[in-house]
Amino acid sequence: MKKLNIVIVAGAVAVLAYMVVRTGWSGAVQQLTAVRNVLPLLMGLSLVRLALQTLAWSTALRAEGIRAGFGELILARSSSRGVGYLSVLGPAVAEPLRISMLRDRSSAAAAATLIDTGVYWFSSGLFAILGTICALHFLGGSSHPLPLIVMVTGTAVGLFFIARPKPRLPGLVRRLGSRCPKFVTKGIEVEAAMRDFQARHPQAIRLILVLDLLCQVLIAAEVVAIFACFGIPFHPVMVLALEAANRVVKMAGGLVPARMGTDESGMAAAFVAFGLPSASGLALALARRTRDLLEALLGIAWVSWRSRSAKTTSEPVAATQLASA
Questions:
Q1: Is residue 9 part of a domain?
Q2: Is residue 190 part of a domain?
Q3: Which of 18-22, 144-148, 161-165, 258-262 has the lowest mean pLDDT?
Q4: Rounded to an integer, what distance in angstroms lies between the CA atom of residue 208 and that of residue 56?
Q5: Which residue range forms the structural domain that includes residue 216?
Q6: Phi, psi (5° rounding) for residue 254?
Q7: Cα angle value 274/219/292 (rounded, 5°)
Q8: Computed from CA positions of residues 255, 256, 261, 264, in that sequence, does the dihedral angle turn out positive or negative?
Q9: In this predicted model, what pLDDT tens digit does every residue of 242-283 receive, in sequence order?
Q10: Residue 156: half-sphere exposure toward Cβ, Cα within 13 Å
Q11: Pick from 232, 281, 273: nearest CA to 140
């Protein structure tokens, strides 16, 4: 796996270098200037999105009677997201870490946290469908519409099964029988807890969905910021189509740590496909990467400081216990 990651990263960096060479040094300087100009705006949009996501998570926790400070939740989300961003496994690392950072409330908060994540992915899927439809419209049906149609259909089917209140894993386990993987069997309890939350707190689910849809609007606003920075005329259909392409690029680079090189080359190619300058796509990806790296470093620094503080606090307690024994 490590060798494969190295090959993937090397290939992505090579494509990125090729795009920079094609753009030229003047284009590269223009990209860096655009990143410097647009980064404060992207940071502001990211902070608002972080606040909305944290409010959604807090709503899910309060529905289960779990109280946590808003600042504590923001730090937990930022830290876990930073670790997940730099890891190959991504959400598989970030979500357990986010739950564990609630300490003694972590076991009770698991279902609510997974609900928060699931609803966010649901809102992202809705925007992906809308953006893909916009891409089909913008490209005039294109000469190869089948991949886009398959993506829309697959995403819609997935969202349909997620939205249905009936659990799906028990039936899958029965069909697979002894061939069923253990992690699928263990997932039955998790799905049951999430479906139970969905049935008991429909108002909370609706509020979380509204907040997450606002987050998707803020993500699309980052594309608008780049267009405004370069003085490029834009249309909402184009913005949504490019944001759908961004989601495809993220999925394609999911196995690469920090998606190194894949975001830049992918967004540059997406902008070219829509008849836009590749420099704009590179600037958007670079600005987002700079923002994400800053957030990741701050989050990891917080995790490190918190772990060190917990260790320092536990040492005197252990020494006192030994002395009394």
A1: yes
A2: no
A3: 18-22
A4: 5
A5: 2-164+201-306
A6: -65, -25
A7: 105
A8: positive
A9: 888 888 877 766 666 667 767 777 888 888 888 888 777 878
A10: 11
A11: 273
- Tokens linked to 72: 């504590």
pTM equals 0.79
Q: In 3D, which of 134, 99, 140 has the Cα closest to residue 116? A: 99
Angle at 292 between CA 290 and CA 298, to 5 degrees: 105
For residues 318 and 151, give the distance between their C-alpha atoms in angstroms, rounded to a whole number. 56
**Residue 196 located in a structural domain:** no
**DSSP at 193:** H
Flag whether 282 is in a domain: yes
Given a contact cutoff of 8 angstroms between Cβ atoms, the answer to whether 142 and 136 are in contact is yes
pLDDT tens digit sequence for 239-252: 888 888 888 877 76
Indicate the angle between helix axes 25-63 and 70-86, nearest 10 degrees: 130
Whose structure tokens read 């608008």?
224
Long-range contacts of 16-21 (CB under 8 A, 24+ apart): 16/261, 16/264, 16/265, 16/268, 19/264, 19/265, 19/268, 19/269, 19/278, 19/282, 20/282
- Token code pair at residue 137: 């419209």
Can you tell me the distance from the alpha carbon of 34 to that of 32, in angstroms, rounded to the nearest whole number?
A: 5
Structural domain count, the chain: 1
Helix (H, G, I), strand (E, B) or coil at 108: helix
Backbone angles phi, psi at 184, to 5 degrees: -70, -40
Contact 291, 85 (CB under 8 A): no
Contact, 148 vs 136, CB < 8 A?
yes
CA angle 204-125-70, nearest 5°? 40
Q: CA 135 to CA 142: how far, in whole Å? A: 9
Distances (CA, A) of 320 to 55, 233, 307, 309, 311: 40, 68, 21, 18, 15
Which residues are CB-neighbours of 173 under 8 A, at least 6 positions away?
A: 180, 184, 185, 188
